[in-house]
Amino acid sequence: MDALDLSLLPQEIVVANERFPAELAACSDLDALNRLKGVYTGREGSFAVKLMEKLKSAPKERKRDLGAAINSLKSTWEEALKAKQVDLEGMKKSLEAAKNLWDTTLPPPVPPMGALHPLDRLMARLVEVFRPLGYHVEEGPEVETEEHNFDGLNIPEDHSARGTADTFYLAAHPQLLLRTHTSPVQVRVLKRLATELEKRNGIRFLAPGRVYRKDEIDPTHSPMFHQVEGMLVGKGIGMHHLKGTLAYAMKALFGEGADVRFRPSYFPFVEPGSEMDVRCPLCGGAGCRVCKGSGWVEILGAGLIHPNVLRFAGIDPDIWSGFAFGMGVERTAMMVSQTPDLRLFFENDQRFLKLMGGLD
Ligand code: PHE
Known about the structure:
CATH class of the largest domain: Alpha Beta
Number of strands: 9
Number of domains: 2
Radius of gyration: 44 Å
CATH topology of the largest domain: BirA Bifunctional Protein, domain 2
Number of helices: 13
Shape: rod-shaped
Bound molecules: phenylalanine
Mean pLDDT: 91
Strand order of the largest sheet: 1-4-5-9-8-7-6
Structural class: alpha+beta
Low-confidence stretches: none
Helix content: 40-55%
CATH superfamily of the largest domain: Bira Bifunctional Protein, Domain 2
């Protein structure tokens, strides 16, 4: 039956039939479609049921035509609903397929790469600068004895550095402390190699590591920081050897233009003692925030090994002499990287580490 004779049907059904295409089009998933199905063709309370009642109560002579109209309308609805169901099922399938889509030709996700901390890299660079000069790496414990941290370094009994105001002593073992500098490694190595000096033709080593002092945390202080100790023992060693070695090392570290100057200073374990400044690598000596206007930045303490230090280790200071230096790693790193706050090196904020070039 082509043309539907809707005139036979109740007004309610005619209106519903006009609404049907729009309602069908609005169904965006199978649940909505099933609800619509219930309303139009379901077994209870639907338009289809109403139509059947209409048919029952119709006069005999009209039943044939009415029945045909009803069947035609119902099958039009059913066909449209069926077609929409096929559509929606297809859509659902392809959505699920897209969810599980895995392109095996894509490269795998690359996990973020770890890298050495900027302080570790600076210390490693120093080691590489000194290695061609015959220096090897030595290590000492961070928990030290007073003998290594003070006695063997000619630090007097009443020296203020020994006090509990400056030094962390272990509560459970008050004779032990957290080393306040890397110089106790000098004492350990000198004692260990004292009898092998002739055979080894002296000693040269670098000792990078952590040190501890009772300092309040602020932009330039931390209770834990790093030093690199350097020591050379030989015969006839003088300040010129120390100066030449450090000037060379600073050029290797900061570039050919690097300039150094020595100022007299005092450390009980060297004589003479000095502090070394490098010409501020940021302003070239003109004066800036980093060098506080002076054009120079202090980066290490140094001097000729005090005869008492050699004696303490069982080495004859009339035969052997040498130099030692202790470099502040954080202040050097701050200067090189223009980092105004030392705490950035310990907070491990990935953005800072990336900026320092440690991470890619
Ligand atoms: N140990 C000294 C300090 O921590 C530095 C230093 C080392 C000075 C070696 C002279 C010789 O300040």
